[in-house]
Amino acid sequence: xxxxxxxxxxxxxxxxxxxxLAIGISPDSFEVESTKNFEKGDFENVAMQSDGKxxxxxxxxxxxxxxxxxVWCLSQNKSGDIFAGTGDEGKVYKIDQRGNISLLxxxxxxxxxxxxxxKRENLYVGTGPEGFLHKLDKKGNLVWTxxxxxxxxxxxxxxxxxxxxxxxxxxxxxxxxxxxxxxxLFTDLTQDNVTSLLYDIKGxxxxxxxxxxxxxxxxxxxxxxxxxxxxxxxxIRALALDDKGNLFAAANSAKRKFKMKAPPMPEIPKGxxxxxxxxxxxxxxxxxxxxxxxxxxxxxxxxSKQESAIxxxxxxxxxxxxxxxxxLFIYSIGIDEDGQLLIGTGSxxxxxxLIEDDLDVAMIKVDELEILSFLKTKNKFLFSTGNNGKIFxxxxxxxxxxxxxxxxxxxxxxxxKFGNIQIxxxxxxxxxxxxxxxxxxxxxxxxxxxxxxKYFDAGKNLNVxxxxxxxQFKTEFKTSKSDITPLLNSVCIxxxxxxxxxxxxxxxxxxxxxxxxxxxxSSRPTGNFSFPTGSSPKTKMDNDETDFDLDNIKPSSKNxxxxxxxxxxxPNGDKLLFSLYFxxxxxxxxxxxxxxxxxxxxxxxxxxxxxxxxxxxxxxxxKRSNGxxxxxxxxxxxxxxxxxxxxxxxxxxxxxxTSNKKSxxxxxxxxxxxxxxxxxxxxxxxxxxxxxxNYLTPDDGIYDSQEESGSFTLEKLDKNEExxxxxxxxxxxxxxxxxxxxxxx
Length: 745
Description:
Blueprint: H1 2-17, E1 28-32, H2 35-38, E2 42-44, E3 46-49, E4 54-56, E5 58-76, E6 82-87, E7 91-95, E8 101-106, E9 111-117, E10 123-128, E11 132-136, E12 142-147, E13 151-158, E14 164-169, E15 173-177, E16 183-188, E17 193-200, E18 205-211, E19 215-220, E20 225-230, E21 235-241, E22 247-253, H3 276-288, H4 290-294, E23 307-313, E24 319-325, E25 330-335, E26 341-345, E27 350-356, E28 359-365, E29 370-376, E30 381-398, E31 401-405, E32 409-410, E33 416-426, E34 431-440, E35 456-457, E36 462-468, E37 470-479, E38 487-496, E39 503-511, E40 545-546, E41 561-569, E42 577-584, E43 591-597, E44 601-605, E45 612-621, E46 633-637, E47 641-643, E48 649-657, E49 665-675, E50 681-688, E51 694-695, E52 707-718, E53 722-731, E54 736-744
Antiparallel strand pairs: 1-38, 2-31, 3-4, 3-28, 4-38, 5-6, 5-30, 6-7, 7-8, 9-10, 10-11, 11-12, 13-14, 14-15, 15-16, 17-18, 18-19, 19-20, 21-22, 22-23, 23-24, 25-26, 26-27, 27-28, 29-30, 31-37, 32-37, 33-36, 33-38, 34-35, 34-37, 39-41, 40-48, 41-44, 42-43, 42-45, 45-46, 45-47, 48-49, 49-52, ...
């Protein structure tokens, strides 16, 4: 990999020093070396670290399928019996040490949200949405049912004296319940929900997490309350303590709207569950508005914003955000057998293991969408899921084998040439890592693709040396020891595209000022030209003629730079060189103006060419980016355009008319004729004695041809005075002509 980077750097430096050497024959590559790249593939018994490395995942297997939508919580008694709280029918199942499953309790509420077992193996069960607390004895008999008078029993903890503490919703209260069922308010955190609760045995204190302000509290049993940390998240979903005294808090920003109001219900006597009528109302509500009803539990709707984080509080008082994810929602956390934090997420069924701050392993992916709880038993480590409700067993041992299949990589062109596949890996003794590939020319792998190649040792580079548009690879991980795994760091697939010809879509011929106007025979864009405006004298007639030749024409203010622009592209993205040719419309041979042009425009001095109609040809070549014999050219010819640097010719004559010979005033009629060899006349103006310019109206009412005429009358001018008449004209090629005549005296 380092050799490749060195070669690419050398080519880049040579390209800067010698542009003619900037060729594209060095291969491009697909780099797979980060979580963003690897996560697009398919994993089977393979895990992924947050630094983008792949390894064998831990062994896990399905323990129990309860055929319920959700297994919200797990608990275990001293005898080793496991209890599973489920939804959406509010049932508690018992799994004994032999794996036998039995229905232990049907709460008549919708969801079993929390459970805990005391020292005497009494099981406490919290429900939602009605917020009931049930006590079952060791044999599973119902001892009592209490209405906590709060919605949702989110969490239950039991202290060393067998006092029960219940975290609830709607008003963010924590209640203390005696083993006999006496309820008292322990503390009010003035939040909507106390979503998580944890008992610290060593510190003999409680930790609580809330919603919607995402705050973490430390609460002593003497009643003192301290905000441990106010996060910038909305909810503290779960809390966990490791053996070293580190407190972990799972925070979410889900923009979830808690639907805290239950449907109208008949009054329920103390100690009894909801009536059949109340249950029917709740089920109808869940049926009609499932998203609104279960959104608070996170089970049946995906939050619109799913940012999450893990905060770690060390015993020395340091607080650090140890992990975050911008796309996943945390449902549960737990401490595994090695004392490391497991993070259960939603929407993709992923479990992460936090190895150290900022480094994790996405080690398990199940088909079920949500990881809802963890439970460390005497001889197992379990986790439960939602959508569908199952329980899985997880171990620290690596799978004996696993497979990763990459996404399909697209070179964009058929017949691309694949070269080396470079693999960066770590393969300890007792392990194997192998790689295979397949090729095709359809976006989805199928019958038209090649078969998978044989497996090659991933400790060496693999030379493909085949042509196709698409490629895909798979890697096989193996180990003979449960505590050792091979490691795949990165994969680099080198290729070179099949070269395709460039194309030229458009040629535009224009001068810098866009000054052309009204010449429909020219391919050059039109613009506007105008003189200052003024009034026009009235018209009469007489006879006198004065002709002026080109010597009287003032120099033109025309811009004589002609800009040639073209649009070209290369399907391979090659850098192009252009050659520019021109010829007269009736000429046979193209003349080279300039070659090896790197830009897509060129400027020509119009005065270097005689008047007439011309064509431009542009030839594009990709030789700059391809080897000899592998380059292509493309060409395009412009529409004809006019070069006209000759000004119009103006002829002026006057006619004098008087109604009374003794009068000291005359009327003059000024006749103007304008002609141009190549371009249409655009506009004419006249001025008397350097006064403001006046528009000269053409005889046919419009300037639209190469010959125009017009006249105007100057009335009652003193015949003893002289008057200078100036006429200016512009044609469609921007040429300006001027002529004058002196009348009177």
